[in-house]
Write a structure and sequence with these properties.
391 residues, mainly alpha, two-stranded antiparallel ribbon, 15 helices, 2 strands, 63% helix, globular
């Protein structure tokens, strides 16, 4: 979750989308958006903690919105990198993809769970099966869980996406994968409503928007944008939208569709899909306007660093931003400082060594691009990666 792009903005309709610097590891321009996302989540969890300013309480309503930004970014980033791997090597190595994801996600997550397990022996802070569901990335299907693992539902959604989408893209090809993304975007809102009527009692209704099949449309929006971006930028109306001085209304409108159970049915069918669309459009605008004032702010080193730290910060916030605790370490601003310290420690000691290993594996993959790789899946010619530029 829990990547900066340099762009040249043209006044005429571009033949291809404005492209910023992209590496095989990340799209750096998205780090600033990650920073915004994690700030929304932090404010959401700060609400209710001791000594937190009541003036900032309204920002707590944006926590789910911040997580949805993460989902759209993830769908776009993973799809973009997979398509670029195919363009460079002629295949998508699922073995290497899953290995890189494990090295990126698992070490920090299991380090966090290990600390919780140790504390649970002494203080009994977890509920039954919390560790089992968390360790198997199924927390989003665990209806009753403790505060300390509650946030791991979004990590479970990400891991379920990592398991499914690359295989769809690799085995079926781009055009069928595009259809899968479109069907997901259209079907998931209906599934949310169906679940609402099928399980009218708590806590099952509260898991709408957490279980994979009720939230996958956010990720699918990012996937579809990655596949269709070149085609979109060839359309005059899309270029006009991206260059409009009124574009700022798109992210403003998206925030107005933030998560609430008031008027549930129209929210599930209309508000959440429009929120996903607004996030995807805003993300594309950001990637094509790095030289704007907003782009420069999001490329500001503290914002980029916060975005880079967002995964560890997302993991380690919960023990400290605990509105149910009266402990001194759960009081503002000490709780926020300790969460940042724990995240930084995790990033330096756990994440970075495994990230270096992941980079080594990626470099070896590039070096072997011209050789036969039995773990690679070749995209069918009729659905080759070049098809993602077609309407």
């Amino acid at each position: 979750m829990p990547e900066g792009i340099q762009v040249t903005i043209e006044t005429t309709r571009p033949a291809a989308p404005p492209v910023s610097k992209t590496t095989d590891k990340r799209i750096p321009a998205l780090d600033g958006l990650r920073a915004i996302s994690i700030l929304f989540v932090l404010f959401n969890h700060l609400v209710g903690t001791r000594y937190f300013s009541a003036r900032l309480t309204p920002l707590g309503q944006f926590g789910n919105f911040g997580v949805r930004i993460f989902f759209v970014i993830s769908g776009f980033l993973i799809t973009t990198l997979l398509l670029r791997e195919y363009e460079r090597t002629g295949s998508i190595s699922l073995t290497n993809f899953y290995l890189r994801r494990v090295l990126r996600i698992a070490p920090a997550a299991y380090a966090y769970l290990f600390v919780l397990a140790v504390l649970n022996v002494r203080y009994g802070i977890l509920l039954r099966h919390d560790l089992l569901f968390a360790a198997t990335y199924l927390t989003n299907f665990h209806p009753i869980r403790s505060w300390y693992v509650g946030h791991l539902w979004s990590l479970a959604v990400e891991e379920q996406f990592y398991l499914l989408w690359p295989a769809v893209l690799a085995f079926w090809g781009v055009r069928p994968a595009r259809r899968v993304a479109v069907v997901t975007i259209l079907l998931v809102p209906i599934l949310r409503v169906a679940w609402w009527f099928a399980f009218p009692t708590m806590p099952m209704q509260t898991r709408i928007g957490e279980m994979f099949f009720t939230v996958a449309d956010a990720i699918a929006c990012g996937c579809l944008l990655a596949i269709q971006r070149r085609w979109l930028w060839r359309q005059r109306w899309y270029g006009a939208l991206m260059e409009s001085r009124w574009f700022f209304l798109v992210p403003v409108a998206a925030t107005e569709f933030r998560f609430t159970y008031r008027h549930a049915i129209p929210h599930f069918l209309i508000s959440l899909p429009l929120m996903n669309l607004g996030i995807a459009l805003t993300m594309d605008w950001r990637m094509s306007h790095a030289r704007s004032a907003v782009g420069k702010f999001l490329d500001w080193k503290p914002m980029v660093f916060l975005g880079t730290l967002s995964y560890s910060l997302y993991l380690w916030q919960m023990p400290f931003l605990n509105q149910f605790s009266r402990a001194p370490w759960a009081a503002f601003p000490v709780n926020l400082c300790l969460a940042l310290l724990a995240a930084l420690t995790s990033y330096k000691i756990v994440e970075q060594p495994f990230l270096k290993l992941k980079e080594t594996i990626q470099l070896k993959r590039i070096g072997l691009a011209g050789r036969v790789d039995e773990s690679s899946i070749h995209i069918p010619e009729r659905c080759s990666a070049s098809s993602h530029v077609q309407p």
